[in-house]
């Protein structure tokens, strides 16, 4: 989209004025653009990609993005005016608009839903209703006592929000009162628009320009001889800002807090100096990502790493996408850094994607030591303002290199040279809710293709689909099977917990082998990691007498027991209950916990090893902004002996002193009812195993607790046999037509009435199968959890061959059938979720 060409269409002479219209993307789930009229004084400034404020509906105002400028009025409605232009220069690039459009088509959603996810909330506008007294109102006799009292409060203020009025009015029903006052025209209700992004401001001080020259400064100090405290404040300023040697330094001033270090001396004296205009105060915008690291010299690659880096660059000459398959601990990050430095030196931008925040913490510190403040960081734990600063920093050219999680694919790059997708196999790259349900790896590849950038996919355990593309020659393939520093892969052993339970050698959930290994590791002052992919204390409570179990009221799942919080919690809808003292059904006191999660393991460890320093890392312990960083920093510093965690501890973390990894409940991971279960189990167990023994002088140990040590996938983990796993999996997928030989689209029908949900699902399946055939349309069937948030679910799976069918036409057909169902009078409350390339 050529912005210059587009905007020149709208120049006009003094004799003939051309009306300009803007097609806007609104962040709402409606499958179309909206046309608005551009005010005359806005025509020269408005550009494609800029944000604007527009009215929508009867009373809302909303942030929109300009997708197109033209001269054609809408045919079916009267165009309303754009209220305000927010950007002097566009904050959304042409490449982003192209990406939004592609994603809405490919992932079968609305372009407004894409925009809503893409823009950080700090770049959106909030509309807050305000109320003010109508000065033309002159009929007090129409008001009752409560209305008169509320109006008297309003007269004392220019305007008040609903919340402020509620506090002033006490128990009164404010919305009802205001509606009555609006009807009687006693008040005016309007929207106060605020932009959420607020720059970080720092208050500074500087000497008045009258004292900048040496002789003037000397006279000031002599004058303050009789006021020693004020003189000391000026001297302190001069120690930090030596303007007596260079008066120009005074222009930048000094952070006010530096002069306020000593409360007794500084605050009152500084206040007096400011009052007497010896000092002037002013505010400056301070970036939230200040440079706290001194960039170090270029890293030195080992011969194996250098060979891999050279091979990647050579394959980029022929392929746009290269898979870098390197075993855990092989030093892939150093290779990434080398490539990033080369691309930045050429003047292009780099995006480095990581699967989730837990992994960013350690790697970001390593990257900052190399790139300093040239690097931006982008993830959901950052505040709105921090994310906006990264967004604007890319537009302004401040950040050429950004490290981020999946949402970073939406950033406004316009000169990409390289995209790195680290741990490309990770399911965290897939967005599940809300729409668009995109996969960041696939979106990144499309974005790179449009900007002629290269893509490097890195993993120790690549996804079967990615490895297949590499083996077929569509992607380049570089493999590195040597650990950094000649460290050995860990020794992996299987522990038969079924046999230990029969022999009664288990200690709670710990086999005797794992218990002794932990005790030995503690004695050697080495660290251990324990992996259990289930949080909470136990999956549910159960009565020993009547077998009652704790169930969620809204979902078809058990309530997980969280001991620290003393509550039962649903991990699907968030419903919470207090823990019953007796069985709610029979009144028995024999209510026990069943199963175990990370919280229970932590509790048992503290009993078994009272002197050990134990930490837990899961969703419950990492809700705070810097919680990941704090836990990882403490573990890295040796302040934690045993780290217990869910899958967030499996990804890319690098600790020198970890020599033992214990894996619990491996069977549950392997036997999950999903066609990727074996692949996922291999990936997860291999990844967490790779945290052990990353030093050359010490081989790590991995103990996997299982009830069935003969399972083939566990033997492949022991042998580090990814190729064997791939051969088995690709054969099965070819036989049963699963990816990479087909595309999957999952349609989930939802309704609060199970019969209506089933009827809608049956009809949708029948209409799709009539044209696509029974072999391509599977279901409907109830998912593993068939009721969530009081809605009954039915899944339909559409399997489409890669080469024999027009996928775009099929998607259009599916959307038409869904529209038919949603507009059926008897099925209007049904909702249907579309998940393209479902995981």
Automatic annotation (TrEMBL):
<dbReference type="InterPro" id="IPR014001">
    <property type="entry name" value="Helicase_ATP-bd"/>
</dbReference>
<protein>
    <recommendedName>
        <fullName>Replication restart protein PriA</fullName>
        <ecNumber>5.6.2.4</ecNumber>
    </recommendedName>
</protein>
<keyword id="KW-0378">Hydrolase</keyword>
<dbReference type="Pfam" id="PF00270">
    <property type="entry name" value="DEAD"/>
</dbReference>
<comment type="subunit">
    <text>Component of the replication restart primosome.</text>
</comment>
<keyword id="KW-0238">DNA-binding</keyword>
<dbReference type="GO" id="GO:0006302">
    <property type="term" value="P:double-strand break repair"/>
</dbReference>
<dbReference type="Pfam" id="PF00271">
    <property type="entry name" value="Helicase_C"/>
</dbReference>
<dbReference type="Pfam" id="PF17764">
    <property type="entry name" value="PriA_3primeBD"/>
</dbReference>
<dbReference type="InterPro" id="IPR005259">
    <property type="entry name" value="PriA"/>
</dbReference>
<dbReference type="InterPro" id="IPR011545">
    <property type="entry name" value="DEAD/DEAH_box_helicase_dom"/>
</dbReference>
<feature type="binding site">
    <location>
        <position position="543"/>
    </location>
    <ligand>
        <name>Zn(2+) 1</name>
    </ligand>
</feature>
<dbReference type="GO" id="GO:0008270">
    <property type="term" value="F:zinc ion binding"/>
</dbReference>
<keyword id="KW-0067">ATP-binding</keyword>
<keyword id="KW-0413">Isomerase</keyword>
<feature type="binding site">
    <location>
        <position position="583"/>
    </location>
    <ligand>
        <name>Zn(2+) 1</name>
    </ligand>
</feature>
<dbReference type="InterPro" id="IPR042115">
    <property type="entry name" value="PriA_3primeBD_sf"/>
</dbReference>
<feature type="binding site">
    <location>
        <position position="555"/>
    </location>
    <ligand>
        <name>Zn(2+) 2</name>
    </ligand>
</feature>
<feature type="domain" description="Helicase C-terminal">
    <location>
        <begin position="567"/>
        <end position="736"/>
    </location>
</feature>
<dbReference type="InterPro" id="IPR001650">
    <property type="entry name" value="Helicase_C-like"/>
</dbReference>
<dbReference type="GO" id="GO:0005524">
    <property type="term" value="F:ATP binding"/>
</dbReference>
<dbReference type="InterPro" id="IPR027417">
    <property type="entry name" value="P-loop_NTPase"/>
</dbReference>
<feature type="binding site">
    <location>
        <position position="586"/>
    </location>
    <ligand>
        <name>Zn(2+) 1</name>
    </ligand>
</feature>
<feature type="domain" description="Helicase ATP-binding">
    <location>
        <begin position="313"/>
        <end position="480"/>
    </location>
</feature>
<dbReference type="GO" id="GO:0003677">
    <property type="term" value="F:DNA binding"/>
</dbReference>
<dbReference type="GO" id="GO:0006270">
    <property type="term" value="P:DNA replication initiation"/>
</dbReference>
<feature type="binding site">
    <location>
        <position position="570"/>
    </location>
    <ligand>
        <name>Zn(2+) 2</name>
    </ligand>
</feature>
<feature type="binding site">
    <location>
        <position position="546"/>
    </location>
    <ligand>
        <name>Zn(2+) 1</name>
    </ligand>
</feature>
<keyword id="KW-0479">Metal-binding</keyword>
<dbReference type="Pfam" id="PF18319">
    <property type="entry name" value="Zn_ribbon_PriA"/>
</dbReference>
<keyword id="KW-0639">Primosome</keyword>
<dbReference type="GO" id="GO:1990077">
    <property type="term" value="C:primosome complex"/>
</dbReference>
<dbReference type="GO" id="GO:0006310">
    <property type="term" value="P:DNA recombination"/>
</dbReference>
<dbReference type="GO" id="GO:0006269">
    <property type="term" value="P:DNA replication, synthesis of primer"/>
</dbReference>
<comment type="function">
    <text>Initiates the restart of stalled replication forks, which reloads the replicative helicase on sites other than the origin of replication. Recognizes and binds to abandoned replication forks and remodels them to uncover a helicase loading site. Promotes assembly of the primosome at these replication forks.</text>
</comment>
<dbReference type="GO" id="GO:0016887">
    <property type="term" value="F:ATP hydrolysis activity"/>
</dbReference>
<keyword id="KW-0862">Zinc</keyword>
<dbReference type="InterPro" id="IPR041222">
    <property type="entry name" value="PriA_3primeBD"/>
</dbReference>
<keyword id="KW-0547">Nucleotide-binding</keyword>
<comment type="similarity">
    <text>Belongs to the helicase family. PriA subfamily.</text>
</comment>
<dbReference type="Pfam" id="PF18074">
    <property type="entry name" value="PriA_C"/>
</dbReference>
<keyword id="KW-0347">Helicase</keyword>
